[in-house]
Amino acid sequence: AQSVTQLGSHVSVSEGALVLLRCNYSSSVPPYLFWYVQYPNQGLQLLLKYTSAATLVKGINGFEAEFKKSETSFHLTKPSAHMSDAAEYFCAVSGDAGNNRKLIWGLGTSLAVNP
Amino acid sequence: DTEVTQTPKHLVMGMTNKKSLKCEQHMGHRAMYWYKQKAKKPPELMFVYSYEKLSINESVPSRFSPECPNSSLLNLHLHALQPEDSALYLCASSLLQGQTYEQYFGPGTRLTVT
Fold first, then answer.
1. Over the stretch A33-68, which tens digit does the pLDDT of each residue have?
2. Which of A1, A92, B3, B106 could anchor a disulfide with B91, C-beta 3.0 to 4.6 Å?
3. Residue A34's closest chain B neighbor by CA?
4. Which neighbouring-strand residues pair with B31?
5. How close, in Å, is residue A89 to chain B by CA atoms?
6. Which residues contact B96 (CB under 8 A, 6 or more apart)?
7. Which residue of A has its CA nearest to B44?
């Protein structure tokens, strides 16, 4: 069965520090992976996606993620956190035919950025 | 333009009311989605339309009735809702329905059922 695990429901970093949000997936087929961000009282915004073209994926707002098949991971990073990065972050894997090809979501990680 | 719009932003309704949520996109996407999201939780898929036809119904109660009048519009008709239906309702669209296509989300409608 396909699944997504986000380690750490809450992550707190200082402004200017490295942001690392962890995502591990389980999939019996080559995965398509996504990171979304949700700012307070807003919808979800696509940060980046992995579709097997390159293992290091660059997204918007300075975020990037590296696909590591051996570790079944797709961790999200940003070299220097800004206050505006405080939000909820969701990792998702695109489901296979058995899952109606719907997005399978992690439970989310809430990122706090301290001044 | 990667914008999905939703109206209204907020909606308060009683359990006997009938109301509708509206979603619109002009990106030429042929797949549209309704999600329900509770606070601090990931979105839960409710319905998927592909080429204006209902493709997926995730066993949603009949008090929620989706409609796709054309390729740009998606409605969600609400009737006799329960307080536990209070949530953020998100609309999304993608170029096509399939694993490789990213979904673009609207800002959502915050629904409160009293």
1. 999 999 998 999 999 999 887 899 999 999 999 999
2. B106
3. B102
4. B50, B94
5. 10
6. B29, B30, B31, B50
7. A105
